[in-house]
Write a structure and sequence with these properties.
Blueprint (H helix, E strand, L loop, with lengths): L1 H21 L2 E14 L4 E14 L4 E7 L4 E2 L2 H11 L7 E10 L7 E13 L2 E13 L3 E11 L18 E12 L2
Antiparallel strand pairs: 1-2, 1-9, 2-3, 2-4, 3-5, 5-6, 6-7, 7-8, 8-9
Protein name: YceI family protein
Organism: Carboxylicivirga marina
Pfam families: YceI
Length: 184
């Protein structure tokens, strides 16, 4: 009987292991990212509801991709200038992030977790290491993640003509909201 139990465990272990690994991976297909720029002459706000992301709780890896041209503005001219003059979305169609979630608590356990995410952000063809804080809420079969952070447009080689310095701020507040579902 003992041998049979050991044989059963040896044969089933790869299957059980793959189940555990699969249950640690989550995806978000319609995340939300927005940015806000406050300058003396004009505030600029845009949002994008097509962010894709993956998070693996077994390794704490996280990645996301944003289609730059999917940012929507209130004014169509702003959107045109954003894509053609500043972000050059025809040349750099995606913004990406790849990194790791750091937390003082075990994020595989259900509940609310304050986290720090560190990794490589790629915007406008420029890769930069960033570290941001956020909140991750693990509900067992779903996860929500929220963060707000500041980026400097100059860090990503986004040029603002001197004539427009009063229209476009040098720092932009980014808000990120992701709702993950268990990857099946």
């Amino acid at each position: 009987m003992k041998r049979l139990l050991i044989l059963y465990f040896v044969l089933c272990f790869p299957f059980i292991q793959s189940l555990c690994i699969a249950q640690s991976k989550y995806k978000a297909d319609d995340g939300f990212v927005s940015f806000f720029s406050s300058a003396p002459l004009e505030d600029i706000y845009a949002e994008n509801k097509t962010v894709k992301s993956l998070i693996d709780l077994s390794t704490n890896e996280i990645a996301f991709i944003v289609q730059v041209q999917n940012f929507k503005f209130k004014k169509s001219l702003m959107q045109k200038h954003f894509n053609e003059k500043y972000m050059e979305s025809h040349k750099y169609p995606h913004a990406t992030f790849s990194g790791f979630v750091k937390s003082s608590s075990n994020i595989t356990i259900t509940g609310r977790h304050s986290v720090t995410v560190k990794g490589e952000m790629l915007i406008h063809g420029v890769k930069k290491t960033i570290e941001v804080v956020g909140v991750l809420i693990n509900n067992g079969t779903s996860i929500s993640a929220n963060s707000e952070f500041i980026i400097k447009v100059d860090d990503y080689d986004i040029k603002i003509p001197k004539l427009l310095v009063k229209n476009i701020a040098e720092e932009v507040k980014v808000t990120l909201q992701l709702n993950y579902e268990l990857l099946k």
